[in-house]
Amino acid sequence: MGLWEIFRRRPPVRELGDLADFIDAQAAFLTQKGIFEYSRARAGHYAKVLFAEIGFQHAVEQARWRAFPIGLAIVAEIVEGILRSHVGDDRRAVLDSLSALVLSIFDRYPFPAQLARDEWLEARRELARRLDLIGIHAVKFAKDVPEPFAESYFALMPIHEKLRQHDYQSIRNYMRVTACNIHAEFERRADIGALVEGLRSSAR
Fold first, then answer.
1. Per-residue b/e over 68-99, b at no fewer than 16 CB within 10 Å?
2. For residue 16, which phi and psi values (nearest 5 degrees)?
3. In this predicted model, which residue has the larger pLDDT, 123 or 53?
4. Could you give the CA distance from residue 94 to residue 80 in angstroms, rounded to a whole number?
């Protein structure tokens, strides 16, 4: 990466394709960064040895794919919370369009080799259920959006349960801070009017 690349502003999120790419990238970042950084921290000086083991690589891939729908649900709720005050009476239609968009992101990826087909299909059904629940409660602060997912995400860490039993709060705090950063990033880059109109048009 060149020096000027560091200072280049990230492009605005205007079209639904931009929104899909934003949600995809942020969900992947949220889930993968936590898995990799936590595993490295737990392994300490043996991290390189651990990550070189085939069995551990398989466990990381399993954790990564199982966590991805959690990331999609969290980022979708953050996005919906920012858009909600701009949609007026079209709240349900816009949420339905956003949910369809998020599910299309899930469908970009083939069945992961590390998971059973039925497990991947169930993950999609659970994601759809989670997306539908967004519309039944008030907008949350970004830091609170990951709360219902924190224990499930923590349980996916590819480290033996006995070695990670005291680390839940660290993972929870990581999710809360990252959710706030995603919220701030979307607020900076989103063309709210264009996105709302795009989601309305998709619903029609």
1. bbbbbbbbbbbbbbbbbeebeebeeebbbbbb
2. -65, -30
3. 123
4. 9
**Which residues, 6+ apart, have CB-to-CB distance to 191 below 8 Å?**
12, 13, 14
Tell me if the pTM is above 0.85.
yes
- The identity of residue 54, as a single letter, is I
- Looking at every residue in the chain, the average pLDDT score rounds to 88
CA-to-CA distance for 119 and 127, rounded, in angstroms? 12
Tell me how crowded residue 114 is: count the other CB atoms within 10 A of its CB.
17
**Among candidate residues 120, 127, 172, the one with its CA nearest the CA of residue 23:** 127
pLDDT score of 6: 40
Q: Which residues contact 118 (CB under 8 A, 6 or more apart)?
A: none
Domain definitions of the chain by residue range:
15-203
pLDDT in tens, 26-60: 999 999 888 878 777 665 665 676 666 787 677 88
What is the average pLDDT across 123-127?
A: 97
Query: Could you tell me the pLDDT band of residue 164, with boundaries at 50, 70 and 90?
Result: low
Quote the CA–CA distance of 175 and 150 in Å, as a whole number: 7
Rounded CA-CA distance 28/101 in Å is 16
